[in-house]
Structure formats: structure tokens, C-alpha cells
Amino acid sequence: MKIRLMENFRALFYAPYYAIHALGFYAREGVDVELVSSHAPGDAIAHLTNGTIDLTWGGPMRVMTAHDRDEQSPLVCFGEVVSRDPFFLIGNVDRFELSDLAHLRFATVSEVPTPWMCLQQDLRDAAIDPAMIPRVHDRTMPDNYTALRENELDVMQAFEPFVSRAEIEQAGTVLYAASSRGPTVYTSFITTRNKAAAHRDALLAVTRALAKMQGWLTAHNGTELAEAVAAFFPDVPQELLARSLQRYLDAGLWARDTAMSRQGFDRLGLSFLSGGALRRPPVFETCVDSSLD
């Protein structure tokens, strides 16, 4: 059994996906998974629909938005991996509250839409109108981090390793961890219904490999996970990698079960609906192929 799997983009919070490869869990389940690099976040969806790959991983929001635009969309997701939001607000602010963003120099993530969609719902939950929060929304995280270090920003939204790097370099501390919100299905496998039917045995083997990975994570720490995936992150120093991954482990970022959380799915859907990216609430049964979990 062979599957062509395209990654979404290279990020530390995707570490479990790389560990499945590095630790040989796919091979143990009898499936040959070829990992293919993507050119940009979301790029893999086009490759799925034109049939050049069999599988990708990414936010279920891509499946939600596809079905929102086209009720006949073939996309489905399965196999929850990142079950909480991996982003943080970091900066040098005393006694921070979300309402303080209204008068702080604040930058959000520009590379992908989900971090802001989820944060703007957190603001609504705190009775704060997101439209009243001035923000820099068109710069990259590296550029924002440089601005934070040079005191041109008070707060930035970022994922690891920027958070641990900021602590080490005394550029900022964690002001808000989005994972504290609770279940928010952030990343899963994505395929098409035709691929799910044609490669059912192989995709079920992928799910079994994922389950083995989830079991492995419960028994190992950030240092051990960093050692397993170091080859995928050659530009991240090992100590920084371990510290970053341990933070994610401590936050309960990664799912302990392959089944998609309905609560987490609904929270993600609400965030995109309130943010104007969806016209109607996504339907779990339409977007999720639970038979593959």
C-alpha cells in the first residue's frame, strides 16, 4: 500500500506528523507513505482535488470553507492531531488582559487565517469587539519578531519557536496561550471521498500509525520528541526545539485519540463563522469521515 502525503507547511506544532515517519509507525502498519513538500500553506488542497496526491494534513477549516462554497465538495477530514490552538500572544506587558490590545502596538499572524479567526472569537467571548483592536496584519512572524525585539511592537501573535526564543532572548514573555481556550480542532488529515474509498485500507493503516504516535507521545517528553524530529528542523537548535515541544506537550496541544472532537470542531467552525469566513455553520457529518477514525 502506497500513499502520497503532502505536508501543509513546516511547523513545530506539526511535530507528531514527522515523528510518525521518523519512528517508523507507517512502515509497521504496512503502508508506504511518501512525504511530499508543499510550496505554501493550503497548496496541497489543489493537489488533492487534481489527484496528484492522496492525502494532506491541515486545518479542518479548509474542509469547512470548501463545503461552504460548494455543497458538493469532495473534501473530508479525519484523524485529529492538533486539538488545541498552538498560537500565543507574547510581549513585555505587565498584568495583561485581552482588552489591553486596544491601546497596544499589536501584530497578528499574516501567513494563515486561523490564528486571527480563533483569537477574534476569544475577544468576542470577552465582550470585546475585534473591529476595535488596531493591529498590524500584513507582516510575517519573523518581521514581527524583529519589531518586538526592537521595541516597535508591544505584542505579537506567534507560534513556537518564537515564544521560547523570545524568553531566551528576553524579548518577551507569554501573555496569552490560545490553547487555554480548550478544544479547538486545529489540524487533521484531509483527503477526498473518492480517495477514501479507493485507498481505504491504506488510510486506515495511516490512522493506526497515528494512534501509535499518540500513545508514544504520552510516554515521552519534549527532549525525546525533539530528538525524533530533529532532521525535519535543521535550522532550529536542539535545545530550542526541545523547549518549544515541551511547552506544547505541557499545554496538551496534541490529541490523545484519533477521533475528531465534535466540541473542538464546533469551536473552530464558530470562529470562522463569527469572523465572516463562513456563511453558515459547518456540519460535522459532512466534513468529517468518522469511519476512518
TrEMBL record:
<feature type="domain" description="SsuA/THI5-like">
    <location>
        <begin position="15"/>
        <end position="220"/>
    </location>
</feature>
<keyword id="KW-0732">Signal</keyword>
<dbReference type="GO" id="GO:0042597">
    <property type="term" value="C:periplasmic space"/>
</dbReference>
<comment type="similarity">
    <text>Belongs to the bacterial solute-binding protein SsuA/TauA family.</text>
</comment>
<dbReference type="Pfam" id="PF09084">
    <property type="entry name" value="NMT1"/>
</dbReference>
<protein>
    <submittedName>
        <fullName>NitT/TauT family transport system substrate-binding protein</fullName>
    </submittedName>
</protein>
<dbReference type="InterPro" id="IPR015168">
    <property type="entry name" value="SsuA/THI5"/>
</dbReference>
